[in-house]
Design a protein that fits this description.
The chain is α+β, with helices and mostly antiparallel strands and 249 residues long. The protein has one domain: Alpha-Beta Complex (Creatine Amidinohydrolase). It contains 4 helices and 15 strands. It has a 5-stranded antiparallel beta sheet. Strands 1, 2, 4 and 5 form a 4-stranded antiparallel beta sheet that branches. A hairpin with a 2-residue loop joins strand 4 and strand 5. Helix 1 runs antiparallel to helix 2 and helix 3 packs antiparallel against helix 4.
Length: 249
């Protein structure tokens, strides 16, 4: 398995990509409101991405038809935007987006509350985000990949949540998906040793119920098998000599 170490120039480009993506997420988060279609969200997201001179990473990636993955309630990831799918008060909506800036990718996801949501949904969103930060405490040179994975799992499961097994994080750079795969759950092996210059997309996908998921007939949308809510939180990070740098925040 070859994990690329990025040069100073590549890191700078990824830093810019991350900054742009962070601002796209911020604008999308502000715009979300009941009555919007998931297609409206996608159109706005693509417009924002292109307004910064970037290309949406996801558009036509392996045939995915949109720029923003919009996943509602029990949809875990890869929801395809539709003009018929309207978001309502009380929904939780995960937005996963990527940008390409001068050939380099950044990838990040956020889960948003639409209006007033249940305390249970609120807690799921919060714990999913916190599990990311628990994981990256271990994203330091000299540690192993599995240190990150184990920390995410331990934290999320301490709340009784299900950690999705069928989808994982990944390396990122001039390709959207690079080596290594980054599970959100402990492995039997320690995994690679982390080195400065590695860029990783770490993305806990956490279900309120069991970890099991199923793919819908569109071959993209992944939903919880038991119909429970799911939340997603992701950032692109850089391994340094010290603390990890979050490029997409």
């Amino acid at each position: 398995m070859s994990v690329t170490i990025k040069s100073a120039r590549e890191i700078e480009l990824m830093r810019q990509a991350g900054k742009i993506l962070a601002s796209v997420h911020e604008e999308l988060g502000k715009a979300l409101c009941p009555g919007m279609s998931t297609m409206d969200i996608d159109r706005l997201g693509e417009k924002l991405i292109r307004s910064h001179g970037c290309i949406p990473s996801f558009k036509n990636y392996n045939g995915y038809p949109a720029s923003i993955c919009v996943s509602v309630n029990d949809e875990v990831v890869h929801g395809i935007p539709s003009k018929h799918r309207i978001i309502r008060e009380g929904d939780i909506v995960s937005l996963d987006a990527g940008v390409i800036y001068h050939g380099y990718h950044s990838d990040a996801a956020r889960t948003h509350a639409i209006g007033k949501i249940t305390p249970e949904a609120e807690k799921l969103i919060q714990v999913t985000r916190e599990s990311f930060f628990e994981g990256i405490k271990f994203a330091k040179a000299g540690n192993h990949l599995n240190d990150i994975s184990s920390a995410i799992q331990a934290y999320a499961e301490s709340f009784g949540y299900g950690v999705v097994r069928d989808l994982v994080g990944h390396g990122i750079g001039d390709h959207l998906h690079e080596e290594p795969e980054i599970p959100n759950f402990a492995q039997k092996r320690k995994g690679i040793r982390l080195m400065p210059g590695m860029t990783l997309a770490i993305e806990p996908m956490i279900n309120a119920g069991r970890p099991d998921v199923v793919w819908m007939d569109d071959d993209w949308t992944v939903v919880t098998d038991d119909g429970s809510l799911s939340a997603h939180y992701e950032n692109t990070i850089l391994i340094t000599e010290g603390e990890p740098e979050i490029l997409s925040l």
